[in-house]
Amino acid sequence: MPTVLITGGTGLIGKNLTSHLINRRYNVVILTRKPVTNKTKEGITYATWDIEKPQIDNDAIAKADYIIHLAGAGVMDKRWTADYKKEIAESRTKSGHLIVNALQQTNNKVKAIIAVSAIGWYGENPKQHLPAWDGFKESDWPDMGFLGTTCKLWEESIEPATTLGKRLVKLRLGIVLSNDGGAFVEFKKPIRFGIAAVLGNGEQVISWIHIDDVCRMFIYAIENENLSGSYNAVSPEPVSNKKLIIKTADLMRKSFYIPVHVPNLFLKLFLGERSTEILKSATVSCDKIKRTGFTFLYPTLDAALGELINK
């Protein structure tokens, strides 16, 4: 079976995606900054890279039939100081440049690169829009704020791979719902104690996707040679923060919880500039990927939460 080289393979998506790939009998090579010992499992091997030096295991590049590029510092992991903003951006752009350079310098058989991006590309919903507007599309210009600019540079860093004859697919991820980490785990924490913490007024729109559909979309992009360019990796049903929190609380606690609105001021004090991402509405369309034939296992919030909470 083909070999898939994954950057960022030890993160939330990388771990889940590796399991999906192994189940489909792909061989997986995970690039990591530190040598891994005694962790090799059937179908999984590890190779080293370092974007700062910069260096990468050329043998891993030579073995790969496909590259899945997930690497990047967590956007919400730390307060957005000037230094951390630089780390967020450079962890994405330097890794992209390193992959392109390695492909230029190493004999390889890589057929396609599937690179992650984010719906931070789009910024916030327009305050006024036509009735026919149903969300941001892949053809929309990037937002001029920090995340929009970062996403633009992120995608541009891997784009030169197309000049080497590599098919490139860029998946712009929404909020990933998973029990293994990320925003959904944070949403559930206060609910366990009977508090449904609605952020701000709760009306902000969240474009989300179930972790299994994320992994399936990456594999779909590998296996469908007609795919190239950017695709929004979001479900067909964007929902408000309030709806997401209350439905989660209903499933976890039945009626034994108290809805509490967390004030904007508190979020701004606690999260700093990151609060703008928590409080903004981003309605993003998945029509483009659906038109290619991709189907969602969890197209609705009810389906996604039912699977995650009853797991």
Work out the strand percent.
15-25%
Give the oligomeric state of the chains in this entry, treating copies of one chain as homo and distinct chains as hetero: single chain
Helix and strand pattern: EHEEEHEHEHEEHEEEHEEHEHHHH
Main β-sheet description: 8 strands, mixed
Kindly report the spatial arrangement of strands forming the biggest sheet. Answer: 4-3-2-1-5-6-7-12
Query: How helix-rich are the residues, as a percent range?
Result: 25-40%
Contiguous low-pLDDT stretches (5 residues minimum) are none
- Count of beta strands: 14
In short:
By secondary structure, the chain is an alpha/beta fold. Helices cover 38% and strands 20% of the residues.
Give a description of the structure:
- This protein is of the alpha/beta class and 311 residues long.
- 38% of the residues lie in helices and 20% in strands.
- The protein has an eight-stranded mixed β-sheet, sandwiched between helices. It has a two-stranded parallel sheet with strand order 8-11. Strands 9-14 form a two-stranded parallel ribbon.
- The longest helix has 24 residues, at 82-105.
- 39% of the residues are buried.
Task: Describe the SSE topology.
Layout: E1 3-7, H1 12-23, E2 27-32, E3 44-50, E4 55-56, H2 58-63, E5 66-69, H3 82-105, E6 112-118, H4 146-158, E7 167-173, E8 175-177, H5 183-191, E9 195-199, E10 205-206, E11 208-210, H6 211-223, E12 229-233, E13 239-240, H7 241-253, E14 258-262, H8 264-271, H9 275-279, H10 287-291, H11 301-309
Helix pairs in contact: 1-6, 3-4, 7-11
